[in-house]
Every structure is written in structure tokens, then in C-alpha cells.
Design a protein that fits this description.
The complex is a heterodimer of chains A (about 240) and B (about 300).
Chain A lengths: L2 H13 L2 H25 L6 H6 L2 H17 L6 H8 L3 H35 L6 H29 L2 H20 L10 H4 L14 H25 L3
Helix pairs in contact in A: 1-6, 2-4, 2-6, 4-7, 4-8, 6-7, 6-10, 7-8, 7-10
Chain B lengths: L3 E10 L2 E11 L4 E5 L6 H8 L7 E6 L14 E4 L11 H11 L4 H10 L15 H13 L5 E5 L7 H16 L3 E6 L2 H5 L4 E6 L2 E7 H8 L3 E5 L3 H10 L4 E3 L5 E4 L3 H11 L5 E4 L4 H10 L12
Parallel strand pairs in B: 3-7, 3-8, 5-6, 6-7
Antiparallel strand pairs in B: 1-2, 1-4, 8-9, 10-12, 10-13, 11-12
Helix pairs in contact in B: 2-3, 3-4
The chains are: A mainly alpha (about 240), B alpha/beta (about 300).
Organism (chain B): Streptomyces actinomycinicus
Protein name (chain B): ATP-binding cassette domain-containing protein
GO molecular function (chain B): ATP binding; ATP hydrolysis activity
Chain lengths: ~240, ~300
């Protein structure tokens, strides 16, 4: 089966669910608003210049996770997946189309989020704001990181076959566990999916990972989750 | 010509055989009723035919090909498995548009099947506002979307109102008359006999009967006559004299097995026995089916031990 019609179908599915449009809007709004609030608060103190612009991503990535999870979880209710796979029996191709249909809008909204956040942050911080070169790196990193988190959640949702299960694993993980052990900078915590990618949003980093390698580590997590999802899909009964 | 061919199909779940060595063919141009009590393996078989569940052993093909190998399968095979497959937050039209896009089915087919299933007026409403009957119609619309040669419907009459049941009967008859292959599962014999030409009867995953509806009725349904007169004893003697197998209930009404009203009426008239009531018993089809499947039923109620 050709790929493009399958992608088209998955794109229609994403476009026509109000909850998914809501989740993407939440990515933009929470990141910008929480970043702006944190920037205003961080003004003048010695925190990381770039991350004080982008700190709202900690909340924005929860919305990105919700987006990726919901997009896939909608297939695991009421036998929807059976109808989907009856139309597209090539499961690998279908999942690739689904992942693409999740990645493209998340990347678009993520980049928009990055640049809006940057502009707002620079306006709030004034003189202490990070430079443009560093700022653009942060904005692009923001878009990529959000996309990778949505894909990570999408893969995990197929493995767990449930949106509720995925969110009850990922949200406490991102909001609590990662915050707690994340403060112990350096070491294993830096390699957690939500921490590694965020290195790209920092001016300084003292761990093993830099902006590029950090995003790469998160990308590996996402790829791993997607591959596990693809394997599950191929081997289990629908 | 698209026939559905199932060969030695078996599906085990943890040692329990849900489908056990099934072999049958579903031919085009007629409606094949797929009958069996709940848990007999009908849905599992359909999922294996559609390539959704992997068989433990055996094969299922449609027009000689495994379903999973079909390019744009909705154009060849339409199916209804779950009435709840459409997302509640989506409109019926968007649900069908996405399905159509995946198989490059032109958008006008979406409107055509919405019209055909009587959903055109509510097509832009969210599916969560639909009744079960409307969701079944949407499932059938999805099955017809690609104008397929073969149609597999799992319990399509579930939740339909009487008007809907008449509609689905007419639809199934028409699809078969157009030369399509039509397989329709049900756990109700009476309902199935109203539209099917051929029957596949399943019990505990095994094929119990592969027969035309006519043959099934002929072989299994015994004609019976119910008769009442002024003096039951006299009638009893008369029936015994002519070798009829008859039984009498408490009110004195006789039930004559293997008999037709014509014979009994004539007999009584000639003997001068007054007739108060004389009727052929139409029932029997459902009983014959229950009879056949009772031994195999998964969840037959067991008598309680004291």
C-alpha cells in the first residue's frame, strides 16, 4: 500500500478530534505563559539565562505528551484499531503514518511555541536576555524536544494499549520523579528522556550531554518507544 | 469471483480452543448466516479472516488471497465488527472520510453510503450523540464504503429497531442479488432464517452444520399439528388407530408429531369427530437450532446441585 493515502487518513483523524486540537493549543499556551511568569520571577538572579526564557517547557511537554498519547489512545477504544487495520493491514506502515501525523503538527506548533516564548522572554527580561544565536538554538530545541516527547508518549501508548495507563506513568514521571532526581545534576538523571532534550534550552551545561547530544538521547528514547510499539502492534492480535 | 475460504482454522487462547479446526467456504451471490451461541467463535473467526488475529494454525483467504496481502482492502472486502469503532467526538462524516482516504476511495462514496444507511441528515453530528442503532448503521456504512465484492458483518442487527431490521434484511438480500459474497453472524436463528440462504452453524469453535436454510428446515424441523375436540379420548383412539405419534396436555389438547393439518383435518372429518381447533405449529426452527447447539453451548445453564 502506498504511504501517502494512509498519512492523509491519519491526518484527517488528528484534525477532526477536538481534544487533539486542544492539546496542541495547550502546548503553546502553557509553555509561553509559564515561561513568561518564570522569566519575570527570575529577573536579575543568577539562574541560567536561556532556561529562564524557556522554563515553561516543563509544563508544555506535559501537553505534548497528552497530544501524542491521545492521538494513539483513540485507536484503543471500542475496537477502533480493528477498523483501522482492516483498512490498512500493513501495520508497520500504518504506525509510521500515525507517528508522522503526530510529529508534523507537533513540530510546527513546537517551533511556533519556541519562537513566541523567545520573543516574550526577551521582552520580559530586557537587558539580561540571552542573545539571538543562543535564543534561536533554544527555540528550535524547544520544537524538537516537544515533538520527541509526543512521539515517546505515542510509542508507549501502543505498548500499554491505553491512554490512561500511559499518562499515569508519564505525567508523574515528568512532573515529579524527574524534578526530584533531576536536581541531582549530572549522572544518570541527565539521560532521562525529558531531561536530556532540555539541555538544548540551557546557556550552560556541566553534564556529559550538550544541546545536540541531549536531543539525540531523547530521540533515541522516542525511537525505542516507537520501535517497541511497532513490534507490539505487529505481534499482538488487534 | 470472491469466495471466502477457511481451511483448518484454529485459534487457541492459553490452551483453550476458541476456534477448532474450521473448514468452510462462503460463496458469492447468496447470504450466508454464521450462527452460533455467544462464545462459539464466530467473531474470532471473522477477525482471523480479516487478518486482525493471527491463527494458531490454518488459513483464511478471500478471493484466494490472505486479507493482509490485499492492496486497498476496503475496495474488496467490507466489514463490521464493532459498533463502537467510530470515535464519539468525531462526526460520522469525518469518520468515514478518514477511512475513505486511507484506501483512496472517492469522497462521493462517503455521501453515498451515508444516504444509503439513512444517516445523511445526522452525518455532521458527533457519533457520541448516536443511538446504538445509528452506530450500527454507521458501521454498515463503513463496510459498504469501498463498494466491496465481499461483506462480513458481525451481529449487524444488534440494537436496530424493527424498521432497521427490515432494512438490513432488504440490504443483505440486495447485496447477495448483486452477486456479492455476504457473511452475517448472529446468535439468533429466527432472525438469520429471515435473510440467509445458507447456514454455517458453530458450537464451541467447531462447525456443526454447513447447509442451506431449506435443507436445515427440511431435515430438522418436524411438522406438528395442534388439535382440540369435544371428547379428547375419542380423538386419542382415532389418532392411535391411524398410527400417529401424539401427546395430550392437561386441557385435552393433542399435539400430533410428523403430521400436517390437511391429513388430520380430513381424518377427523371422515370419522365425524368435531374440530374445535386445528393448527400447524410454525415453531421448530429455533428449537432445532438450540437442539443442535445445546450440547456444544459454552455457557449452558447447569442444573444446581442441592
Amino acid at each position: 500500500m502506498p504511504f501517502v493515502p494512509v498519512l492523509h487518513a491519519e491526518w484527517i483523524k488528528i484534525r477532526t478530534l477536538p481534544s487533539l486540537r486542544g492539546a496542541l493549543a495547550a502546548v503553546l499556551v502553557t509553555t509561553v505563559v509559564f515561561s513568561a511568569l518564570a522569566s519575570a520571577d527570575a529577573d536579575g538572579r543568577g539562574s541560567d539565562a536561556l532556561f529562564s526564557v524557556f522554563s515553561g517547557i516543563s509544563f508544555g511537554q506535559v501537553a505534548a505528551i497528552a497530544f501524542g498519547t491521545t492521538a494513539v489512545a483513540s485507536e484503543f477504544r471500542g475496537g477502533a484499531l480493528r477498523l483501522t487495520l482492516a483498512a490498512v493491514p500493513d501495520r508497520g506502515r500504518w504506525f509510521a503514518a500515525k507517528a508522522t501525523a503526530i510529529a508534523l503538527p507537533t513540530l510546527a506548533v513546537g517551533l511556533l511555541t519556541g519562537f513566541v516564548t523567545l520573543l516574550v522572554g526577551r521582552a520580559v527580561l530586557g537587558g539580561s536576555a540571552p542573545g539571538w544565536a543562543e535564543g534561536v538554538r533554544g527555540a528550535v530545541g524547544c520544537g524538537l524536544h516537544l515533538t520527541l516527547m509526543a512521539l515517546f508518549a505515542a510509542g508507549l501508548t501502543v505498548v500499554l494499549r491505553s491512554g490512561v495507563a500511559t499518562l499515569s506513568v508519564l505525567i508523574p514521571f515528568v512532573l515529579i520523579v524527574s524534578f526530584v532526581i533531576g536536581d541531582m545534576s549530572g549522572g544518570v538523571a541527565d539521560f532521562l528522556p525529558d531531561r536530556a532534550g532540555q539541555v538544548a534550552l540551557h546557556s550552560d551545561w556541566d553534564g556529559t550531554l550538550g544541546p545536540g547530544s541531549g536531543l539525540l538521547v531523547t530521540a533515541l528514547w522516542s525511537a525505542g518507544a516507537l520501535l517497541a510499539g511497532g513490534w507490539t502492534l505487529r505481534h499482538r492480535d488487534a | 469471483m470472491t469466495s471466502i475460504d477457511v481451511r483448518d482454522l484454529t485459534k487457541e487462547y492459553g490452551g483453550r480452543r476458541a476456534v477448532d479446526g474450521l473448514t468452510f467456504s462462503v460463496r458469492p451471490g447468496r447470504v450466508t448466516g454464521f450462527l452460533g451461541p455467544n462464545g462459539a467463535g464466530k467473531s474470532t473467526t471473522m477477525r482471523m479472516v480479516l487478518g486482525l488475529d493471527h491463527p494458531t494454525t490454518g488459513t483464511a483467504t478471500i478471493g484466494g488471497h490472505a486479507y493482509a496481502r490485499l492492496r486497498e482492502p476496503l475496495r474488496r472486502v467490507g466489514s463490521l465488527l464493532d459498533a463502537d469503532a467510530a470515535h464519539g467526538s468525531r462526526t460520522a462524516r469525518d469518520h468515514l472520510r478518514a477511512l475513505a482516504a486511507s484506501n483512496r476511495i472517492p469522497a462521493r462514496r462517503v455521501d453515498a453510503v451515508l444516504e444509503e444507511t439513512g444517516l445523511a441528515a445526522v452525518a455532521r453530528r458527533r457519533v457520541r450523540t448516536y443511538s446504538l442503532g445509528m452506530r450500527q448503521r454507521l458501521g454498515i456504512a463503513a463496510a459498504l464504503l469501498g463498494d466491496p465484492e465481499a461483506v462480513l458483518l458481525d451481529e449487524p442487527a444488534n440494537g436496530l429497531d424493527p424498521e432497521g431490521i427490515v432494512w438490513i434484511r432488504t440490504l443483505l438480500r440486495r447485496l447477495a442479488a448483486e452477486g456479492r459474497t455476504v457473511l452475517v453472524s448472529s446468535h439468533l436463528m429466527g432472525e438469520t432464517a429471515a435473510f440467509a440462504d445458507h447456514l454455517l452453524i458453530l458450537g464451541r469453535g467447531r462447525l456443526l452444520a454447513d447447509t442451506s436454510v431449506q435443507e436445515f428446515i427440511h431435515a430438522r424441523v418436524q411438522p406438528r399439528v395442534r388439535v382440540r375436540t369435544t371428547d379428547p379420548a375419542v380423538l386419542g383412539d382415532l389418532l392411535a388407530l391411524h398410527g400417529h405419534d401424539a401427546s395430550r396436555d392437561a386441557e385435552g389438547t393433542w399435539t400430533v408429531l410428523h403430521a400436517r393439518v390437511d391429513d388430520i383435518g380430513r381424518l377427523m372429518s371422515e370419522a365425524g369427530v368435531p374440530v374445535l381447533e386445528l393448527a400447524a405449529r410454525e415453531a421448530g426452527l429455533e428449537e432445532a437450532y438450540l437442539d443442535l447447539t445445546a450440547a456444544e453451548a459454552e455457557f449452558t445453564a447447569q442444573p444446581q446441585e442441592a
